[in-house]
Design goal:
With 137 residues, the chain is of the alpha/beta class. The protein has 3 helices and 6 strands, in the order αβαβββαββ.
């Protein structure tokens, strides 16, 4: 007869500890993982290749701001534009966004009102300068 190296209790405890370490590792990696960087056009098309919500970051210039009672819609553009939704209207008002300000938005691509949308978790102004040289100036 062979002698058992681990008892049933020790084996169960080792399995539970390993499972907890694995779950904790996945959780930490998900917190540290860099969000997917997308252009406004890619965000507008929802081109992540995934049907689930996905963290993403987009950079561009403010094209429009429409603050409603329950949410704000911010047009973020580069060569193409995306409508980014924020449900924190007081935060958007405090930012005082103006057309052509450069912003970086962190959020999720997900379905909102039946279509792919970029839902903002955080938006950051990259510059406060709104003066641009135009042709003939």
């Amino acid at each position: 007869m062979t002698k058992l190296v681990l008892s049933e209790k020790k084996l169960t405890a080792a399995c539970a500890a390993t499972a907890l370490i694995g779950i904790a590792s996945i959780f930490i990696i998900s917190l540290l993982a860099e969000p997917l960087r997308l252009s406004p056009g890619e965000a507008a098309r929802g081109s992540t290749g995934s049907s689930a919500s996905q963290k993403a970051k987009i950079s561009g210039f403010v094209d429009s701001v429409d603050i409603k009672e329950s949410h704000a819609v911010i047009g973020i553009a580069a060569l193409e534009a995306v409508e980014a939704i924020s449900f924190d209207t007081s935060y958007v008002k405090r930012l005082g966004l103006e057309r052509f300000q450069e912003v970086e938005a962190l959020g999720e691509l997900r379905r909102y009102k039946g279509r792919e949308s970029f839902v903002i978790a955080k938006i950051k102004l990259l510059n406060r300068n709104t003066s641009f040289c135009q042709s003939g100036d």
